[in-house]
Amino acid sequence: MLTLAAVALTIGIDLLAAEQAPQAPVPAIFISKEEHEKVLAEQIAKNVVDQPIKSGQVLGGLTSVATLHRVKAEASSLIHDTVTESYYILSGSGTLVTGGSLVGAKPIDLTRLNVGMGQQGTRQGGVSQRVKPGDVIVIPAGTPHGFSELDRPISYLVFRFGPTVK
Q1: Is the CB of residue 90 less than 8 Å from the CB of residue 140?
Q2: Which of 10, 115, 148, 158 has the smallest count of CB within 10 Å of its CB?
Q3: Where residue 124 sits, what CATH number does that domain have?
Q4: pTM of the model
Q5: Could you tell me which of 32, 89, 83, 40 has the C-alpha nearest to residue 62?
Q6: How far apart are CA 53 and CA 47, in angstroms?
Q7: Which is nearest to 114 in space by CA: 78, 77, 84?
Q8: Helix, strand, coil percent values for the chain (each to nearest 5)
Q9: How many structural domains are present in the chain?
């Protein structure tokens, strides 16, 4: 016969095991070429810089895919506090500056873009890199970044990974 303490211990172990049990796999997020090209065409027509396409919860937080279309260089740079971004350049070219620091940084809320809180300011220092179609750039959370010059409009996919933004 089990004692009350043994029953409580068994229930506790069962609850702990249930909390640590592997979760069901996250379904894949699929974005066809046609889908991201349609979103990009619409955002160019509406003069929108950053347009989320899809997002979904993944183990550890949120993943999001957006398309960006810039027609001019950025006067300031950004830091995303908790979101890492990966760029895939679709068209256009220019100079991307990463690293360094921000002068006069002010908080900016980019939650509507699945980025959460960050800072925006004047870049100081950093590394300049020419980018062109087919290039991939990974920008870790906390890294200042911005395009210092564009040869012509630039379009790119951005893959964002970070904690769930609220």
Answers
A1: no
A2: 10
A3: 2.60.120.10
A4: 0.76
A5: 83
A6: 16
A7: 84
A8: 20, 45, 35
A9: 1
